[in-house]
């Protein structure tokens, strides 16, 4: 190695020039705190997903946990290894100063879009997808975290409708006492559990509630409460007004599926399934949606 090459190695920055390393093949999809793009990773010769975080919004969120040494979204994502969780390959800081995350790219669509479009490809696939979604949420809990934003937008379903994976850990926090204190009112409004809305202490069961709302929509398209208000005001009724029975909207739905989804929607976290795995177990052996 020449002297010049040794100098380059010595002063090499850990930061990545993402514009040089990646070929951008599609327009960015804007999220609440980031932008996501399908790219080709020249260095590793593979197509991946590239998430670039909004520095201002990320710093504003992280400021809630000042002094707690909270791991970053990228660090959390790297710890989550499960078939129903999107795989994260790498995270770091770009030469421009923004944080980035490199992950597997899944050919498919967001579940929210499929529900809104009443996608017929979901027919006959919902039970399997439900089981996978519950296992994905359970994997986050087993790793010691609370996702805090379980909703249809954060599940990707493969193009053949056979696979569902949980994504986006921008609001994810460790399942530890300092992070479960009242006041962290973050998430998607119509999926927030009553304890979040009322600013009470929380735990992993906020994700069970949100999973229940998500599964309800998966099977009947509609929301258990009001669809019309996405500001969060409707969420104030989640512990004072009972959700519409899922069987009222889909009378022939398998009773075991209906029962476990409605259990997830209980305003009292102690009456919800204790774990996401129990949601998956409750439909063990079921392969048809309707009786």
TrEMBL record:
- The signal sequence is none
Pfam families, per the entry: Pkinase
Task: Give Gene Ontology CC terms.
Answer: autophagosome; cytosol; membrane; phagophore assembly site
Instruction: Show the InterPro entries listed in the entry.
Output: Atg1-like, Kinase-like_dom_sf, Prot_kinase_dom, Tyr_kinase_AS
For this UniProt record, give its keywords in alphabetical order, as a comma-separated list: ATP-binding, Kinase, Nucleotide-binding, Transferase
**Cross-referenced PROSITE patterns:** PROTEIN_KINASE_DOM (PS50011), PROTEIN_KINASE_TYR (PS00109)
In the Enzyme Commission scheme, what number(s) does this protein have? 2.7.11.1
Q: Which Gene3D superfamilies match?
A: Phosphorylase Kinase, domain 1, Transferase(Phosphotransferase) domain 1
A single GO molecular-function term is: ATP binding
Has keyword Kinase? Answer: yes
Q: Which residues cross the membrane?
A: none
Residues covered by the Protein kinase domain: 22-284
Xref: PANTHER family: NON-SPECIFIC SERINE_THREONINE PROTEIN KINASE, SERINE/THREONINE-PROTEIN KINASE UNC-51-RELATED
Name under which the protein is recorded = Serine/threonine-protein kinase PknB
- Encoding gene per record: pknB_17
